[in-house]
Amino acid sequence: MNYQETLDYLFNALPMFQRVGAAAYKADLTNTIALCSHLGNPQEQFKSIHVAGTNGKGSTSHTLASIFQSAGYKTGLYTSPHLKSFTERIRINGEEINKDDVVEFVATHKDFLDQLQPSFFEMTVGLAFWYFAKEQVDIAIIEVGMGGRLDSTNVISPELCVITNIGFDHTQFLGDTLPLIAGEKAGIIKQGVPVVISHTQKEIQSVFLQKAASMEANLVFADQHWEVIRIQNPDQDVSQLARFQVKGSADAFEFGLRGDYQRYNLPGILEAVEQMRKQGWNLTKEALQLGLANVSEQTGLKGRWQILQTQPLTIADTGHNEAGILEVVNQLKRYPYSQLWMVIGMVNDKDISKVLDLLPKDATYIFCQASIPRAMDAHELASKAMEKGLKGEVILKVTDAIEFARKNAGADDLIFIGGSTFVVAEIEDL
Question: How far is Cα 195 from Cα 182, in angstroms, rounded to an integer?
Fold first, then answer.
């Protein structure tokens, strides 16, 4: 098989949550353990950091990878879902996995894959572990796909576990209360492995403390050690990097990810670096600063408060659940504009009522749908939105919706594109 034939096999033969949702979700580790065993347990051949959470795990994973890369370490990075290309999921020092390696992996192990019938995600986890072992990375940052306890990535024995913000997402799989969701995320905590919790949430604090105690794992609530303050840019120059300062310290640093919500992620990142330093990793102040400032350039991260153009100001963000949208809306309020345009699409397997409640009622909406089976029908989305007092029109195709907004927006307007990772993925100039 060539690369395209290999992709067709992966996308069509293996159930893919990104596309079809619940039908692709497998709530156990049986297949992953079997696949890893077949591959010679590559996950045991490199050191790793395991990152879980509802919001912020992608930003945290990419940033940690950027810092290790800046320190001179050969750094693997596994994340999901991909936006444009399948190979985005697996990187070493920011470079995506070679297509030939994807072809080789599938061709070599196709008989076993056909027999095992793993999910798409289970297969990609196996591929990532195989690739990182083959390329002999110094360390790999491994992002959980969903949950933690039963996530396919949860077969590694990491040097450190990091858990970011916990919110309501994938409630049909992880539970409908924050303690239940936190319990699933806490499932990545391993015997004797240090744990960093990025953001203290009082209603679930005890969940992590109890789990860590049962595993004899040292646990740190990072925001209790690192109080991060964003330094506002007085002239509203959107091209400038975000600047943050740790309270009580004279040092300020620039961060390549401009979203205000990064204030929840940064304490966890800083504490993770400190924890790894204690383990002997040479993560200098310079490497930290370089890694923070150049995270997008070094790791290819896209869609996190990404500025696409300045006239009209056009911003894309993958925030899609209640907590993520709240942060988006609050940050939009800080920007001056004549009219706000919201190009919005969502998925059909989540309760969007609370998200719609948060969206600004004075914006002009363009409802669209991503080209995946999970996408909510744009007309249905518009109908639900109008019940909440949100007004606009339906333009089915994401690219057409964006083009319409750009054509009709004035130079002093602001266009926001989001509501779903998969809407952002279809932006042509991302």
Answer: 14
Burial of 191 (0-12, 13-18, 19+ CB in 10 A): exposed
| Count of H-run helices and E-run strands, the chain | 17, 17
DSSP H or E segment with residue 115: helix 99-116
Query: Region 153-158: what's the mean pLDDT?
Result: 97
Instruction: Judge contact between 310 and 363, C-beta under 8 A.
Output: no
Backbone angles phi, psi at 50, to 5 degrees: -105, 130
Q: What are the tokens at 200?
A: 């203290």
Tokens of 1: 């098989």
- In the chain, the N- to C-terminal Cα span, in Å, equals 30
Q: How far is CA 247 from CA 3, 143, 162, in A?
A: 50, 29, 22
Spatial contact of 49 and 142, defined as CB atoms under 8 Å apart: yes
Question: 3-state SS of the chain: helix, strand, coil percent to 5?
Answer: 45, 20, 40
Other beta carbons less than 10 A from residue 214's beta carbon: 11
pLDDT value for 72: 98
Q: What is the pLDDT of residue 378?
A: 97
| Listed range (40-54, 250-264, 400-414) with the worst mean pLDDT | 250-264
pLDDT attached to residue 241:
86
Q: Which residues in 64-211 belong to E strands, given as ranges?
A: 75-78, 90-92, 95-96, 139-143, 160-163, 195-197
- Assign 290 to helix, strand or coil: helix
Prediction pTM value: 0.92
Q: What angle do CA 174, 190, 172 make, to 5 degrees?
A: 5
Label residue 275 by pLDDT band (50, 70, 90).
very high
Taking a C-beta distance cutoff of 8 angstroms, is the pair 65, 75 a contact?
Answer: yes
Domains annotated on the chain, with CATH: 3-299 (3.40.1190.10), 306-425 (3.90.190.20)
- CB contact at 8 A, 29 and 140: no
pLDDT at 23 exceeding the cut of 70:
no
Angle at 67 between CA 62 and CA 72, to 5 degrees: 125
* Location of structure tokens 């659940």: 321
> Rounded distance, CA 291 to CA 67, Å?
4
